[in-house]
Amino acid sequence: MSTRNIHTLIHTALVAEAKPIIGHFKLRCTAKQPFNLYENEHIALIVSGMGSQNSKEALLYALSLYEPHVAINIGIAGCVDRSIAKGTLFCTTQEGLGMPFASCSSHPKALEDALHVKTTLVDMEADIFIQTLPNPIKTYVFKVVSDHLEDTIPSKTDVGNWVTKSIKLWEKYVRYEP
Q1: Distance CA 149, CA 121 (A)
Q2: Hey, where are the domains in the chain?
Q3: How do residues 98-153 score in pLDDT, each as one tens digit?
Q4: 76 touches 123 (CB < 8 A)
Q5: How far is CA 147 from the centre of its chain?
Q6: Of 89, 83, 116, which Cα lies nearest the Cα of 102?
């Protein structure tokens, strides 16, 4: 199978995270199986489902189809610091991008306490995202605070609204410039 050269591969775990991005970048659905896949001429977005195994499989599948120059993981994360508002966007891979930086660690399931957490943010996919992508691809991980390790699940509406508000802060890393 030959791969197609694209500028940016975007990865989300949840459809609620993907919907605002699909609309913003005018992506069209090109596949529902084995993963939801959306694209335009320069951007592809894959929705993996939650967890490291789903993310790894989705990313390997996407890399079998595309050769991206940039890869972005965007999604929600829990935050151990209760003073940080829900909806706050962080970059977890680089400092100095015009947004706050925070450390992030991935865990196999949602955490309900910060007892053994040594990072500001916790999610399920960021670590495997970074590990799966080959070196020449420029990678960014952007996380939106969705909770403070409570056992309540944020609504799809809240997730969509937070991601929508975050796009203007990270979209410049997606933009294709010939």
Answers
A1: 10
A2: 4-173
A3: 899 999 999 877 666 666 778 999 999 999 999 999 989 999 999 999 999 887 88
A4: yes
A5: 16
A6: 89
What angle, rounded to 10 degrees, do the helices at 156-170 and 15-24 form? 40
The answer on pLDDT for 31 being more than 60 is yes
Distance CA 109, CA 7 (A): 32
Tell me the one-letter amino acid at 95.
E
Residue 13: predicted pLDDT: 94
For 43-56, give one letter per residue: b (16+ CB within 10 A) or e. bbbbbbbbbbebbb
* Residue 75, φ and ψ in degrees, nearest 5: -175, -175
Task: At 175, list the tokens.
Answer: 């933009």
User: Rounded to whole angstroms, how far apart are CA atoms 31 and 147?
Assistant: 31
Q: Based on the number of CB atoms within 10 Å of its own CB, is 151 exposed (0-12), middle (13-18) or buried (19 or more)?
A: exposed
**Tokens found for residue 5:** 């050269």
Looking at domain 4-173, its CATH superfamily turns out to be Nucleoside phosphorylase domain (3.40.50.1580)
Measure CA 107 to chain center.
15
Number of H helices, E strands in the chain: 4, 9
Q: How is residue 13 written in tokens? A: 């775990």
